């Protein structure tokens, strides 16, 4: 299918490396972004990075306003918007994991200003993408927004974050394998627009990460570097596609449904990783690549079973059989799985 026009929105300055946090002001000034920022952060990220960012801008004569967020909700987005308007700020800086960064992304979009992403955890590709995700009313709203104008990913900080957040980021990337397969399937069966460039980039990102699994080890700063580069690359794939398709297929539907059934039971990346094992089995059967996905997840220490996710068997089956209802996105789940088929997929792959 031929797209008549595309609009690819990308971050412009992406800083990755040791102590790059100290260069946040530089990354912003280089974009000619001037005036007073609002820092949106959480309790822990504030200590880890937010206070240092605040001091940098204060030293340049732009004392930032600040708002602390502790939950991902539309009410929290509104609080960020209110704080920005009250303090009359010019742009926003999100400092933290996915929660503060998503809230910043959505508020910046609503306010029509730019925002800078300063991740303190490499937990999923939302820290660099133009997608935001907020759970509300028992469902998950995944919305399109502008990506950050700059990303400042300090590998020293990311390497010090709890290891499980990093393994979640890895699993989110590994799930690109099945996301791309679902996208191609949707093209064949539903004539959905498929971007060769975006699909190839998303898949290659997962392959490179798996090839480097040996250098992804707790305590190694290089791990944070490898993972962040992959998260950036995956974010670019989504920007090229103009949707989350290259990084979100049936394994994400499964995870979103788990979020609805058992909120906060496990991390997003860990859920999509386990989902990806089963979805690969659905695509390719007993002799497909599902063992490769499982082994890649195990190699970096991400969960591969329902037990390791801390989620019971019945919930896994319910999520699998109802995941297709989550959103209008054609995947291998089609119009839904029967309970026996879901049980077989989960049992054969050792998820339950
Ligand atoms: N945009 C997208 O595509 C996607 C967005 N999401 C959204 O992202 C959120 C989940 O992201 P996630 O990053 O897991 O969650 P959080 O931002 O909630 O971070 C997880 C926990 O880690 C803490 N934390 C963050 N950085 C550090 C650090 N350096 N050291 C120690 N602790 C740290 C946080 O503290 P504190 O609570 O103090 O902030 C929080 O308790 C959800 O809101 C989800 O909806 C999920 C998937 C995709
Ligand atoms: O998590 C994502 C990609 O990894 C975003 O996808 P969604 O559009 O399913 O929220
Ligand atoms: Zn994801």
General shape: globular
Overall mean pLDDT: 95
Cross-sheet strand order for the largest sheet? 1-8-5-4-2-3
Q: List the quaternary state of the chains.
A: single chain
And the CATH topology of the largest domain?
Dehydroquinate synthase-like, alpha domain
Number of helices: 15
The fourth-level CATH homologous superfamily of the largest domain is Dehydroquinate synthase-like - alpha domain
The major pleated sheet works out as:
6 strands, parallel
Q: Encode the helix/strand succession as letters.
A: EHEHEHEHEEEEHHHHHHHHHHH
First-residue to last-residue Cα separation: 40 Å
CATH architecture label of the largest domain: Up-down Bundle
Q: Can you give the helix content as a percent range?
A: 40-55%
Q: What compounds sit in this structure?
A: NADPH dihydro-nicotinamide-adenine-dinucleotide phosphate, 1,3-dihydroxyacetonephosphate, zinc ion
Query: Can you tell me the number of structural domains?
Result: 2
Going by helix content, strand content and strand pairing, the class is alpha/beta
Kindly provide the name of the CATH class of the largest domain.
Answer: Mainly Alpha
Binding site for Zn(2+): 172, 252, 268
Protein name: Glycerol-1-phosphate dehydrogenase [NAD(P)+]
GO molecular function, one term: metal ion binding
Keywords: Cytoplasm, Lipid biosynthesis, Lipid metabolism, Metal-binding, NAD, NADP, Oxidoreductase, Phospholipid biosynthesis, Phospholipid metabolism, Zinc
